[in-house]
Amino acid sequence: MNFADTLQFASGSLRGARTRTLLMMLAMAIGVAAVVILTALGEGARRYVVGQFSSLGSNLVIVFPGRTETAGVSPGMLLGQIPRELILEDAQALMRSTAIRRYAPLAIGVAQASNGALNREVVVLGSTASLLAIRHMVMGEGSFLPEGDTRIASPVCVLGTKISRELFGTQRAVGSWLRLGDRRYRVIGILAGQGMSMGFNTDEVVIVPVASAHQLFNTRSLLRILIEAKSRDQIIAARDEAERILTERHGERDVTVVTQDAVLATFDRILSALTLAVGGIASISLAVAGILIMNVMLIAVSQRTQEIGLLKALGAPPAQIRKLFFIEAALLSLLASLAGWVLGEIGSFIIGRLYPTLPVGAPWWAVLAALVTALGTGILFSVMPARRAAQLDPVLALARR
């Protein structure tokens, strides 16, 4: 019996027991679809986070107050002490570095914004004119914060599109006055709609000069400092010089300076490992499907005893009988894997339509691994039924004993 005859015989056996074949294919297809969908979700989360960080800016270095400990607990934390604050003078001192093009200090707080009878609570972001270029923001109308001495408070503000729409409606916002807390600010510009970025919705923010934000919230501290290096090659130099300058000013190393690439690489590693883990968990279902195939094929051996006995009586050697069962299992697994792949892609497409911001898509290695694992599992678990069928005595098999 050549390969074509063997393939035809195996496909005929599968067609002869359609219910059994469909059940085994369904079990295997669900396993493959689960791997494809879960890895697509994991990969979508990775792409989303990477995209969000990339949108923060280019050649970016971020300074946080407090030093990230790599081991143990800082004694100061046990005593309830807070890390030393970053202040505006720290940000200004960073311009001593030849690797830094510009900086944008960030101060943040929440205030009540009102325009006549309309009012709502808003996030107020204090920064400088450099923020527009560093964060790649786009103005929809008017102008951004003015250049000048960052230590001087100015009663001007820039609104996100949603804040402008809710507080001013059809009224022209640019040139109007807006009350934040107990202070009045003139609206000089409106940001173009940009939506969420790292959990921060720029459409719902009010941006004021950093000195104005300090006056509004009665503080002098900064949440963080964004630094833009002069070029990609100078990112590391900008990070090291920023750390050196702030260490000299504070008398100790009490800040954390990270590059955008380092943050991206960290998230990329974490989310890639997460994708691999969920794919591995989902692949357990393929093993379960393999066991189901083995059990069903063992039953099939007992049901096809006469058929096997007839083949052996006609001269089929044990190796040929084993080959028949292997081909049958391989054909079954291949069809089920392809069906599961299609099912998984359909599921991923539906999830992508339901959550358009999540770039759902299974990585090629996950699809390949799912198909190979399903095929291998099906063939592996057919070994025992094939051996049992090959060991049947033809006389006893024909007599159904």
Automatic annotation (TrEMBL):
The keyword Cell membrane applies. Residues 281-394 form the ABC3 transporter permease C-terminal domain. Its main location: membrane. Keywords: ATP-binding, Cell membrane, Membrane, Nucleotide-binding, Transmembrane, Transmembrane helix. The chain crosses the membrane at residues 21-42, 270-303, 324-344, 364-383. It is a multi-pass membrane protein. It comes from the Bacteria. InterPro entries: ABC3_permease_C, MacB_PCD, Macrolide_Exporter_MacB. GO terms for cellular component: plasma membrane. The keyword NAD does not apply. It is found in: Cell membrane. GO terms for molecular function: ATP binding; transmembrane transporter activity. Residues 21-244 form the MacB-like periplasmic core domain. Belongs to the ABC-4 integral membrane protein family. PANTHER family: ABC TRANSPORTER PERMEASE YTRF (PTHR30572:SF4), MEMBRANE COMPONENT OF TRANSPORTER-RELATED (PTHR30572). This is Macrolide export ATP-binding/permease protein MacB.
